[in-house]
Amino acid sequence: MTEAIGFLVHDTARLFRRELNERMRHSGVTGLQWRLLAYLARNEGTNQVKLAEFLEVEPITLSRMIDRLADAGLLSRRRDPDDRRAWCLFLEAKALPLIDELRTAATLLAEEAQDGLSADERAQLAGYVERLRQNLSRKNSDSNNQNQAA
Hints:
The protein is mainly alpha-helical. It has six helices and two strands; from the N terminus they run ααααββαα.
């Protein structure tokens, strides 16, 4: 194998994002906005700090993106009951059909990307990629714990 696994995973994810963005271009929602909406669909009520960490964007960038999505009627902010300075984010009803459309497009794209793989190969691939993710998540958690202890 001539390509490093990190490059292959990154390039595959890049191609997947590019194709999904192309399929969803008609919605007027950017790829990063899609990631935000998809995250909220799984973690509704999360605060902006956690969301910025997940999306790996600066808080000001996230704030502007949230403003645009709120202006479009796709999400709303509510005061965090545990922190008066923070806002929790919630999807609005208008976002739900878009989320469903995104899920359908992502499922179809995943099917196309796995064309020619048997059911066993698909399961193995998913297992291997999940193991990579767990290894990296564990390493990041260990690094964060060491940094906090110092």
